[in-house]
């Protein structure tokens, strides 16, 4: 397709004094008018009309400018001043007419192009699908089947901009013949253009490879789950997704599909017990279609948001003094850690009540495995109203990972990161007393090693008579990908 493009600019005020001139531009663009069609001719008729309308608009501006300048003429030279203004107005009119004529002439010349046929043969796309099972994070080979309106011509076919390994075959009676010698692939900012010259048959198969769907995994502690987001710019169907989980009995393994905040149970999943110990370490499932789909997998439980034995605590969270087990100790009876809806995110968080803590009770978060080497990141919101501490460490919370090789040690209070080891942390003020802690550069060396986070409280505050609280909200860990 030949692109017809034209631009016209009128300058108002030609011949007038520079200080009094008024510059206006009228841009006319008929790019992308389709040749060989009535639409092309209609577009150029419209172009001609725009040429005339633009000239009239310029003349109106000429008149307005002249009237303004004429009113400014005073004194004994008033008549001479008005005469000069009128002369300049007439010059402005002539320039507008000249530009209009040039515009119309160009329009007539370009109209001839409407009679020229398109250099490319038309075609229809019969199908465009993957040649094999699409798997998350693996390249996918796509077959695009097209049917040209006639043989012997030239076709131009668009592919995704990240398409590589492009190969074209002619198809006759079900037999493919490679015709790569007649193929030119050109990449631009938005797509790849495949040009095939002298096509021997009307049926063509175009194979190309693109990156497969990607998968992001985020641990959401408050609902004891891992969020898995599968996405792609290509509309893949029937994508195989998989994720590793902390070993669980089969009856506790659940997968949910999240659409517009509504969670629906996915029944068709494959449970994998790799070591035969009766516990599930991996699950797979099919994502029916993309671009972006979100799933939740329970970490240690079956998605309850509050513990069955203690509804004041989130599922999978345990109150204890040492952070070494998935059970409570005497701390549970104190009630120093409870669920709260007083959060920044709007979802439930965990509140620490200093005045009830006589043992130094910490909070053990649900355990999980990264399963992939790389860098892990963590974020959470927190709020506190401690008033009595005189030392910054008196009101400090400490987050410890008992996951051995994958260490990250963090000490912070309401305003400051006091200590950070083998990871990097920052605090951002969110307003209204809320802060965001962002932990980065948390390197995972042993992907199968369990991450067991334990929040230790500022126990000394109880002895100081502190009655304030600290709230943890929306704690998430983004796993390496």
Structural overview:
It is a single chain. This protein folds into 4 domains: 117 residues, no CATH class; 88 residues, Immunoglobulin-like, CATH 2.60.40.740; 85 residues, Immunoglobulin-like, CATH 2.60.40; 161 residues, Jelly Rolls (Sandwich). The protein is 15% helix and 39% strand. The chain is built from 3 helices and 29 strands. The strands form 5 sheets. Strands 10, 11, 13, 14, 17, 19, 20, 22, 26, 27 and 29 form an 11-stranded antiparallel sheet that branches. A 6-stranded antiparallel sheet has the order 18-21-28-23-24-25, with no helix packed on it. A hairpin with a 3-residue loop joins β7 and β8. α1 runs antiparallel to α2. The N terminus is likely disordered.
In short:
The protein has three helices and 29 strands.
């Amino acid at each position: 397709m030949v692109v017809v493009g034209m631009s016209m600019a009128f300058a108002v005020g030609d011949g007038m004094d520079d200080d009094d001139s008024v510059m206006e531009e009228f841009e006319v663009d008929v790019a992308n008018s389709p040749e060989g069609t009535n639409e092309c001719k209609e577009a150029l008729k419209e172009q001609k009309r725009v040429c005339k309308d633009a000239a009239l608009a310029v003349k109106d501006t000429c008149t307005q400018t002249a009237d303004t300048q004429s009113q400014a003429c005073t004194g004994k030279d008033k008549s001479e001043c008005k005469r000069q203004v009128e002369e300049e107005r007439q010059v402005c009119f002539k320039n507008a007419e000249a530009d209009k004529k040039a515009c119309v002439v160009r329009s007539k010349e370009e109209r001839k192009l409407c009679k020229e046929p398109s250099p490319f043969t038309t075609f229809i796309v019969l199908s465009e699908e993957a040649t094999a099972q699409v798997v998350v994070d693996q390249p996918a080979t796509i077959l695009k089947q097209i049917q040209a309106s006639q043989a012997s011509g030239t076709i131009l076919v668009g592919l995704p901009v990240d398409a590589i390994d492009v190969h074209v075959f002619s198809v006759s009676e079900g037999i493919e013949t490679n015709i790569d010698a007649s193929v030119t692939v050109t990449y631009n900012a938005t797509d790849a253009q495949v040009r095939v010259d002298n096509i021997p048959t009307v049926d063509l198969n175009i194979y190309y490879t693109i990156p497969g769907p990607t998968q992001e995994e985020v641990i959401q502690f408050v609902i004891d789950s891992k969020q898995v987001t599968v996405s792609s710019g290509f509309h893949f169907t029937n994508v195989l997704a998989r994720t590793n989980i902390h070993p669980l009995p089969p009856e506790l393994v659940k997968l949910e599909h999240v659409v517009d905040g509504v969670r629906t149970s996915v029944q068709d999943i494959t449970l994998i017990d790799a070591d035969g110990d009766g516990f599930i370490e991996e699950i797979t499932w099919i994502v029916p279609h993309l671009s972006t789909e979100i799933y939740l997998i329970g970490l240690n439980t079956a998605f309850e948001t509050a513990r069955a034995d203690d509804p004041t605590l989130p599922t999978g969270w345990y109150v204890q003094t040492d952070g070494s087990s998935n059970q409570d100790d005497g701390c549970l009876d104190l009630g120093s850690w409870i669920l709260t809806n007083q959060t920044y995110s709007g979802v439930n968080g965990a509140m620490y009540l200093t005045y009830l803590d006589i043992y130094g009770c910490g909070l053990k978060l649900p355990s999980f495995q990264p399963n992939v080497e790389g860098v892990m990141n963590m974020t959470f919101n927190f709020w506190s109203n401690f008033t009595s501490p005189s030392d910054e460490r008196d009101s400090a919370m400490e987050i410890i990972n008992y996951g051995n090789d994958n260490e990250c040690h963090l000490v912070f209070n309401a305003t400051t990161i006091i200590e950070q080891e083998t990871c990097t942390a920052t605090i951002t003020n969110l307003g209204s007393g809320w802060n965001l802690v962002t932990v980065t550069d948390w390197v995972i060396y042993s992907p199968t090693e369990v991450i067991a986070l334990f929040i230790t409280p500022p126990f000394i505050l109880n002895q100081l008579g502190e009655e304030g609280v600290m709230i943890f909200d929306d704690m998430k860990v983004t796993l390496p990908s």
